[in-house]
């Protein structure tokens, strides 16, 4: 579905701006062409990597019954969707002289980026709780993390993301725009859009910090606290099982850092603009969704075995069909 047909139309009484100009990552045609092929390759890796994780977890009964891999498949699905919000538009803009996005398309990007981004933060927090129960209370792990609870936790993550994103969209849709319409980025996000409003945006930026920045920071602190408890537990009981648990936690902490650090950087300081903002945005919307599948598969023996099992199954099915 095109972002321009999201169905959110701007309030014409309060704004004279019908579209925004995206300045993108560079004005050099040669560099844009290089970036096009680079990000196209990255986008293909994102799609294939995350789709592979979702398919493997769904196909392997053992992994699907494991809460950790169940949550991981949802994380990969979110990364898959998140990359589709900004990257296709960016790739198209690399090949166009005029890089514009309609007001409704901008609102759609804001909605989906924050819906998926916040859902991912909540899901990572849930995954930290899952690891805490598995390591600190292993005898009751399957009783606590039963199918009913994990369904409710995932549903809660999606609901939390939806509420957060609606709040962000309402912030933008109420703002009057009457003059400048250039966004110094390759996609629409609240901090850049707010700066173009024809009004004093101090209170709006405070609201944005309290909504996005505090959300990112609180979830991040909860995650750090959970892993601090896990590390304390592992310190006193370090054998083969705990070594595997430590490796899993290390992968999760790496992903957490890749996601939360850019978000805290962007949304806790909307009053300031730094030259590295675009780099941070690229890292959050493009690089992180690409790295997540690599981190979780290259360091995970269970995922490797499940991928190999699926590959052999597909080869056997193909040979049987030909025979």
From TrEMBL:
One of its GO terms (cellular component) is plasma membrane. The keyword Transmembrane helix applies. Its main location: membrane. GO terms for molecular function: G protein-coupled receptor activity; olfactory receptor activity. It is a multi-pass membrane protein. InterPro entries: GPCR_Rhodpsn (IPR000276), GPCR_Rhodpsn_7TM (IPR017452), Olfact_rcpt (IPR000725), Olfactory_Receptors (IPR050427). Keywords: Cell membrane, G-protein coupled receptor, Membrane, Olfaction, Receptor, Sensory transduction, Transducer, Transmembrane, Transmembrane helix. Belongs to the G-protein coupled receptor 1 family. This is Olfactory receptor. It comes from Mus spicilegus (Mound-building mouse).
